[in-house]
Amino acid sequence: MTDHALHTDEQTINDLRILGKQDGRSVYEIYNRAHTRGGESLLEKMFCNPLSDKEAINRRSSIIENFARLNISFPFTSSLLDVVEKYLLTATDVRSTGNSPFSLGEKEIQSGVSGIIELTRAMKQFVDNGDLWKIEAYADEYNAILNFLSDPAFEPVLREQRKGHLPYAAITAYDTLFRNSESNKILKLLASIYLLDVYISVARTAIERGFVFPRAQEKGLCLLKLEGVYYPGLEHPVKNNISIDSSSNVIFLTGANMAGKSTFLRAISTALYVAHLGFPVAADSMEFSVMDGVFTTINLPDNLGIGASHFYAEVLRVKKMATALSSGKSFFILFDELFRGTNVKDAQEATVAVINGFATNKNSIFFISSHIVEAGESLQQLANVSFLYLPTRMSGHQPTYTYKLEQGITDDRHGMVIIRNEGILEILKKGKKAEPFDKMTNRINI
């Protein structure tokens, strides 16, 4: 991983549902409006390699923001790209194995040659009549396309009059040009088209969903300001605001089960992760200092392969974070229900000790959620720890949730209320017939 790449890991990718489909749609799928397989592959690669350089992040963000502002549409059909991709696949085989460039069937060669001619002419028209030249941050990619279109080797392609089938001699000459002597240039054009596809895809997502384009600031500022942030996978989200700097870079979050802690933590960390891609985020506004790494621990599995309990897996995870912090770099570190795998007394002592250690790092940001309110009370002596909670309102014996952040610590606990509401104790005591299992599982969605 280079210095310009954000450090992260598989645990974080899974926690934030970046690529997988755990519990619903992945973040990648939300942003994927690509028209080509190459565009989809490039977008996935970007999601796996977030940036950690302010200039690179803001440059990509500016390009996509301008694509959205100008409402640029993809100028090629998917079927045309499919034909061209299939045809060009043999170019690599020709160079590496020496196979004849005519190993394709005659119809496939004719379709491929015609496809590249059509693609090149469509790109020329798109560049001449479009607004790409207006996007300053896109200048390098734009000039690369212009250089291709002005290359003398492709002048015959742009002069070609597509009024009928090409003669055999012309197809043979073009085939040699496209898949042999100038194949690298054709493949670079295709790469430019895939990148164009990604920019248009993400810009379309921003338009359709009303996502905002964040602005990255220098590393080390320990800055994170979000207004109206929410997790992008929710259909009816509740938005929240949060502002963090070096004077309040440790957040201790409390709230009862189902109050929305995990969802809020995913919203914050997903926004920060996606912002490091240079992509728009699910919020009304966002400003952040670039981090060296983003690490979350929300759904930490037991490591049964090495005989590790959940608590030991948590300890190893904390050790990994401590090792990273010892480098002096800036990290975003999040733990949802830290030390849930041990008894309350040990969990309280360990939580307080670890957060005290975290709090000495003034250039990183920490989010820790916990049910142990006593730990929060012990941490109030630390000046850079802020306390937030997600409240529960009781309507009779029925808990309701606002999902809106409030300042302070809450000792809301209503596990027994939920157990009683579900009639579990009555079932156990009197043998009351339970609801059918399939009906019950359809109703409960925690």
TrEMBL record:
Transmembrane segments: none annotated. Keywords: ATP-binding, DNA-binding, Nucleotide-binding. GO terms for molecular function: ATP binding; ATP-dependent DNA damage sensor activity; mismatched DNA binding. Residues 248-436 form the DNA mismatch repair proteins mutS family domain. SUPFAM superfamilies: DNA repair protein MutS, domain III, P-loop containing nucleoside triphosphate hydrolases. Coiled coil: none annotated. InterPro entries: DNA_mismatch_repair_MutS_C, DNA_mismatch_repair_MutS_core, DNA_mismatch_repair_MutS_sf, MutS, P-loop_NTPase. One of its GO terms (biological process) is mismatch repair. It comes from the Bacteria. This is DNA mismatch repair protein. It comes from Chitinophaga caeni. The lineage of its organism: Bacteria, Pseudomonadati, Bacteroidota, Chitinophagia, Chitinophagales.
